[in-house]
Specification:
The protein is of the alpha/beta class. It has helices spanning 9-18, 51-65, 123-135, 155-165, 174-184, 205-227; strands at residues 2-6, 20-27, 30-37, 40-46, 69-78, 88-96, 118-120, 140-147, 169-171, 187-196. It is built from six helices and ten strands; from the N terminus they run βαβββαβββαβαβαβα. The structure holds adenine.
Length: 228
């Protein structure tokens, strides 16, 4: 089984609708829909925005459905000229840019217990996603993704993340999902279509492109599922 997690209604609605013969289970307010999608056994859930929501939902998914792979689909802010609106960042690895225990002598963004800064995404799945994107005519790049409980919308914050971590896109959930997966030895993949440029210079950009970018991510996800 493949687990699919999305943060927002705009990112998950089409998937909930497309699932064949869904079996719905609600746990702690999270709605899990298990069924068939693009020829695969899947379970889909909306985890809500932010790392705590994503961690609760991902861990619950692992313990209840035991997926061999968890895919996170949705939108992200761009940190790179190479990723324009509606392009897709395919996670190579994930850094949680808001973890900072440097005052205790740790490396910036070191994840407690796991003792690493960069959390892995499954390489083979990432390659399948990139090929799927090409097939459906979407510009996609393998990318380091920065995740944190913050909507990034200033040139200063954008620059800070790029300088410290070399990330190309940012969002608010995949760090938690990758951490949950890493602890349990489950493969993880991240597909994020760009909805905004993160520098706060383009008013209402996120609202304008949220749905279009979310649909773009779903398009790539569905094609990748077929090939997995
Ligand atoms: N998701 C989409 N755009 C984002 C941004 N600018 N910051 C954090 N998460 C996002």
């Amino acid at each position: 089984m493949i687990g699919i997690l999305c943060a927002m209604d705009q990112e998950v609605a089409a998937l909930y609708e497309m699932i064949q013969q869904p079996e719905i289970t609600e746990i702690s307010g999270y709605r899990f829909a298990a069924g068939r999608l693009a020829g695969k056994d899947v379970v889909v859930a909306k985890c809500g925005v932010g790392k705590v929501n994503a961690a609760i939902c991902a861990q619950t998914m692992l313990l209840t459905y035991h997926p061999e792979l968890v895919m996170n689909s949705g939108v992200a802010g761009s940190l790179s000229e190479k990723l324009r609106i509606c392009d897709v960042a395919v996670g190579q690895d994930i850094v949680q840019h808001d973890i900072d225990t440097t005052a205790c002598g740790d490396e910036l963004a070191l994840v407690p217990e796991l003792d690493r800064v960069y959390l892995p995404c499954d390489g083979e799945t990432a390659r399948v996603i990139c090929r799927a994107a090409e097939k459906v005519g979407v510009h996609a790049l393998p990318a380091r993704i920065a995740s944190g409980d913050q909507f990034v919308s200033s040139p200063e914050k954008k620059r800070w993340i790029v300088e410290h971590f070399g990330a190309m896109a940012c969002e608010m959930e995949s760090g938690a999902i990758a951490q949950v997966c890493c602890r349990s030895g489950v493969k993880c993949a991240v597909i994020r279509a760009i909805s905004d440029s993160t520098d706060g210079e383009h008013a209402m950009e996120f609202e304008k492109f949220l749905q279009i970018a979310a649909d773009q991510s779903v398009k790539v996800l569905l094609e990748a599922l077929k090939a997995l």
